[in-house]
UniProtKB/TrEMBL annotation:
SUPFAM superfamilies: FAD/NAD(P)-binding domain (SSF51905). The keyword Oxidoreductase applies. Keywords: Oxidoreductase. It holds the Pfam family Pyr_redox_3. It comes from Acetobacter nitrogenifigens DSM 23921 = NBRC 105050. The keyword Oxidoreductase applies. Coiled coil: none annotated. GO terms for molecular function: flavin adenine dinucleotide binding; monooxygenase activity. This is FAD-dependent oxidoreductase.
């Protein structure tokens, strides 16, 4: 260690719920460590969510270590400020060694096996490093967006706040995953004319046979399914989340109902040239596949109910409320009165600051339950790191406890 270096046994990169969960277990075990956060502990919930954002999973699944949900509505869905308060309450519950506004700019591994972490103008030496910065760093916007007429306002979903933020006129929402489908509803409820480019995202019903679908799936131990036992194995990590909402107590997001009530549905966006949007001829296929996924989930619940002899009310099969015609006409944005585009096509991870051999040929990190082949180097908080809940409030505690056990060499139970 050079004179200018500082030393700490463990460094955690990222002060969101994953990094904070890691810190909680390390604090319990009295392991000296530092959590570096480029912004603030709640910034992703505060700065990257729209005003009417709420959880799509019920409150009872909020189970950060030592800090379960204790409110009066376990089967409700926390809204944005409640989520922020929940995370802040977690921070206050154990006072982690958190250094906010301190970005990590590089990590290297030296011949002696230690990691050198540059953060906030200092260089730190650590034997263990946990990357808990998430997988949603770089917002995806296609290259051709720069050629769209500047009179059409463009915003990514992470920067969308509310309908009033957009100029008057129709809105084109690109992408029908969780964010896209919920933003369409947000705009529609504000009486905006909306066009939606429908991709391959699946959907799920909010309630079925008298209960929230999440409650059924929890009883069926779906959330304990590990990625190694998932039918898609590692491919599960690339699947888009099902669209549904917890808004106003929770309900289905049925794109066919949107269409019936006036939302313009189109297939996957192919490109926009000369301010004309061109779509793939896959609208019917995408709607049908989303409905099939929902139907398959219901069938699995039906089988569980029958197998376990559960007394649950019957429910009639879903009947599509609307069918698209064969028209796949392009959309002239200006002729249609479109003055805004909301890009809801996701994010790319950014690990360019990590110079450690833990990535495959596609520059994706390789791990098993968060543990990489580089001794003492770990990932936490990523989708399907180990189970469905790995990137969420519901399962990150289990993953953090596991990694804490790898660091300490002790068997640490999940809090």
């Amino acid at each position: 260690m050079t004179q200018s270096e500082k030393s700490v046994p463990v460094i955690v990169v990222g002060g969101g719920q994953a990094g904070l969960s890691m810190s909680w277990y390390l604090c319990q075990e009295k392991v000296e460590h530092i959590v570096f956060e480029a912004k603030t502990a709640c910034h992703s919930w505060d700065d990257e969510r729209w005003d009417n954002f709420c959880l799509v999973t019920p409150n009872w699944q909020c189970a950060l270590p030592g800090h379960p949900y204790k409110g009066k509505d376990p089967h409700g869905f926390m809204v944005k400020q409640e989520i922020i308060d929940y995370v802040k309450g977690f921070v206050e519950s154990f006072n982690p060694p958190l250094r906010e506004h301190t970005a990590v700019t590089s990590i290297t591994r030296h011949e002696d096996g230690a990691y050198r972490v540059a953060a906030g103008g200092d260089v730190w030496r650590a034997q263990h490093v946990v990357i808990a910065s998430g997988a949603y760093q770089d917002a995806v916007i296609p290259g051709y967006a720069s050629a769209i007429d500047s009179s059409i306002y463009q915003v990514h979903s992470q920067d969308y706040r509310n309908a009033a933020q957009l100029p008057k006129g129709a809105v084109l929402v690109v992408g029908s995953g969780q964010s896209g489908a919920q933003i369409v509803e947000d705009l529609f409820l504000e009486k905006r004319k909306v066009h939606l480019c429908v991709g391959s995202a699946p959907r799920v019903s909010r309630f079925y046979r008298g209960r929230d679908v999440v409650d059924w799936l929890a009883d069926m131990r779906f959330y304990d399914l590990t990625v190694d036992n998932h039918p898609l194995r590692d491919g599960a990590r690339d699947k888009t989340n099902h669209y549904v909402t917890g808004r106003n107590g929770g309900h289905d997001l049925d794109l066919r109902l949107f269409a019936k009530e006036g939302v313009g549905l189109h297939g996957t966006l192919d490109t926009i040239g000369e301010d004309v949007a061109h779509f793939l001829p896959d609208l019917k296929e995408n709607l049908d596949e989303a409905d099939k996924t929902n139907s398959d989930i219901k069938k699995s619940i039906d089988a569980y109910i029958a197998r376990e002899g559960v007394d649950a009310p019957m429910e009639a099969p879903y009947v599509p409320l609307w069918e698209p015609d064969a028209n796949n006409a392009p959309l002239d944005l200006k002729a249609a009165g479109v003055t805004s585009i909301v890009w809801c096509i996701g994010f790319r991870p950014n690990y360019r600051w990590i110079d450690v051999p833990v990535f495959n040929g596609a520059n994706k990190p390789v791990w098993r339950r968060g543990v990489t082949d580089a001794p003492g180097f770990y990932f936490l908080g990523l989708p399907w790191l180990h189970t469905w809940g790995s990137g969420r409030f519901s399962g990150v505690s289990r993953d953090a406890a596991w990694l804490a056990s790898q660091i300490t060499g002790k068997d640490i139970p999940v809090a």
